[in-house]
Amino acid sequence: MKILFLCNSYPTRANPFNQLFIKKMVDEMKRQGGKVKVGFNVVFYFWGNANKVKNPLATVIKYFFYVFSHIPFLLRNLKNTDVLFPQGILLSTLLAVWVKRFTGLPVVAYVHGGDLNRNLKGKGMGNRLIRYSLDRSDWVIANSQDIYKKVKQVSANPNVRIISPGVDLSVMKPLDGLDELKKQYAVSDDKVVFLCAGNAIPRKGMDVMLDAVLSLEESIQQKIQVILLTDGPLKRNYQSFVESNGLSEVIHIRSKVPPDVLNIYNNLADVFVFPSREEPLGLVGLEAMAGNALVVGTAVGGIKEFVIPGQTGFLFEKDNVKELANLIRHLSQNLSEYDSYYPRIREMVEQHSLSSSAEKLMALFSQLATKKVKA
């Protein structure tokens, strides 16, 4: 079966972390026997952080290179293709449904949520293009219940289902030898370790974590180590905050890391903190669970679907610094009370495995390819 992924950003040497979950799905589908080709915007070969630059000139450049990339890719690869699998609605699903008009190829649109969240309200051009694209797709895949509900708000397409992008359990898993790893990665062995990982942008809410730690009494600060794995436009602001408030011994800001190293950090952390203001799913939280970290997350979007109070973790209200500080204080003193959560955490992770998600998608593609042949 030949599957064409259409996307905007994709991991390159210029930014190996760009939409890494798409590459993981590509690799897993290949492992399961799919013939997969990926078309993406070649601008990311030399401009790794293009998605983070927001101005009219940057938009024109990115759109130009998107078209420049995809037209020759499609001309080379459309022959014998069974399914178009665009990632995101604008621009990729819009392109796919136009290709469908001329080729009849089925379109399965994967909605990750970013462009949908930005254009959900109102009746602007973005909203109309999203509705147009989703209505004309053969199937729409949402990555969470939250995004499923939003898709149903904007589109009349009856063929919508939820399939997680999936946790790669061959990489994200419990590890042995943690004492040596703590020394290697400068992680405390006598403090409660809190980890955050994500882009240094407002949506990820790392400033809420910093404010919460600052508000704690010194006796609690001395009991914890906070590690932020982040890169992006606000990183210098975070570093300045830590230095100016005398928190350098408590909060350690480091760069983003590849998946295998992130898994090490997840294993070394006691608690993963997820302070996002908006999160369609929050795969990084599920990956933390795979490394046996308890998760404290904001009660937004897809986070509250797998962080279940009393079972798998703890929730707090968006931007509520005091509530997060209270949770940090409580866990720094009572962590062992929650050992009973780990069996349910493992069940939750396995429900979101990459291999299972790929199997579901491949089965759907096979159904569509069979219908195409019969037609």
N to C succession of SSEs: EHEHEHEHHEHEHEHHEHEHEHEHEHHH
CATH topology of the largest domain: Rossmann fold
Beta-strand portion reads 5-15%
CATH class of the largest domain: Alpha Beta
Distance between the termini: 17 Å
CATH architecture classification of the largest domain: 3-Layer(aba) Sandwich
Can you put this structure into words, describing what you see?
The chain has 375 residues and is α/β, with parallel strands linked by helices. Helix content is 46%, strand content 14%. It has 16 helices and twelve strands. The strands form three sheets. It has a six-stranded parallel sheet, with helices on both faces. A three-stranded parallel sheet has the order 2-1-3, with helices on both faces. Helix 1 crosses helix 16 (354-374) and helix 3 crosses helix 5 (125-135). The longest helix is centred in the N-terminal third of the chain and has 22 residues, at 56-77. The mean pLDDT is 94.
